[in-house]
Amino acid sequence: MLKKVAGFIEEHDLFSPGDTVVVAVSGGADSVALLDVLAGFSSLRLRLIVVHLNHCLRGAESDADEAFVRELAGKYGVTFVTQAVDVQDLSKREKLSLEEAGRAARYRFFSEIAASCKARAVVLAHHADDQAETVLMRLLRGAGGSGLCAMAAKSAGMYVRPLLSVTRFEIEAYLRERGLVFRTDSSNADVNFLRNRVRHELIPFLKSYNPAITDRLVTTAAALSEDEEILDKVTTEAFNRFGTVEAGRVKFVVAGIATELRGLRLRLYRRAVLQVKGDLTQISARHLNDIDSLLLSASPNSRLVLPEGFTVKRCYGELTFQKHGDASSVPYEFFIEGPGSYPIPGGGLLTVEVAAVPESWDGVPATVAYFDGDGAPFPWLVRTFIDGDVFSPLGMARSKKVKKLFIDKKIPLPFRRRIPLLFSGETLFWVGGVMPATAGRVTASTKLVLRAEILDFTP
Hints:
6-stranded mixed beta sheet, Rossmann fold, 40% helix, 5-stranded antiparallel beta sheet
């Protein structure tokens, strides 16, 4: 077994000599074997830090597990760190199953310790049987190819699993040979937990069809993992072609990804959600299908609300992934008493200065406008769009609804609520960055010319 583990470590480059590593030890057979194996690899000169999370689920038994691991760490002469978390309470507060809450608490604790001691890796005791169980659990819950890859030798940059190449049978034989004792978690027999049902009921049943089912599942996960490396590279290349990341949002060019294969589109959506949200929890295949329908919809403007405060918006040629409550959509209003620079809530800057009439109106960008200081006297009110706003566009004889202007100019819906509208009294004289009005225009008799410009303003 030691040769298999050493070869696996070398194949996947899990450690370098002298690394500081955090070893997660529950006190069970797998983690006890893991600690002994790592301590025995003297050539690696690893600095081991044993960590143990007390889940507070089994009363005195949980406390006894903690005491056992503390003593075990002492025997190996390594640092021991523990923490107690009321996982039952956590599951209620965060609306998670006990399994999910326990996992979240463990990984949070492991990450904190790793960061505090600048460890290169957090070492977990998952083995081949765990891998087979994980494949089946994800299959039962409904997972695609990436999910069925199950656990990787190295994940999230620092979590490593050097025992994935060995089975539970091999680990138990190793413990007997080494004369090592371990704790048995009574909850491992509780079939109310899905993993325990898979372990104690489903896998034994499947072995009646194929005695080597564990090996077959592990081999399948490994093959899918290799395929996933290729698909991940293709997804990254497509993301870089069609996507942009800015201010906590991801935007895709609709025309670009709409022509790609559906499988790649779904992977791009997953990548976008992960980029903005940080994880894919509660994002199901149904949600990805809904996003795809949004992309392919004939409607140029629509929105989809996903779990945990997440929104996907289709605005003409862009598909945007962002969290609810984006600051860019918050209404605002403020007054301008005279020339100066004024921050626009949500991003951007409005500058106003006394200026001369430009030599030519050709080439003046839409973000710049000139006004008659007497025709549009201060104070100016700057606010966001309200349904019913009307103005008289420069060069037009009739008034026009601002909403109709936005539609004609194909201004995306979220952006409409950010554009600054400038008023003098009750008169709207500039739809900022879009179109000035007849009111306040510069004429031959203008004595005071004011130049307004919007800077660093993006949807």
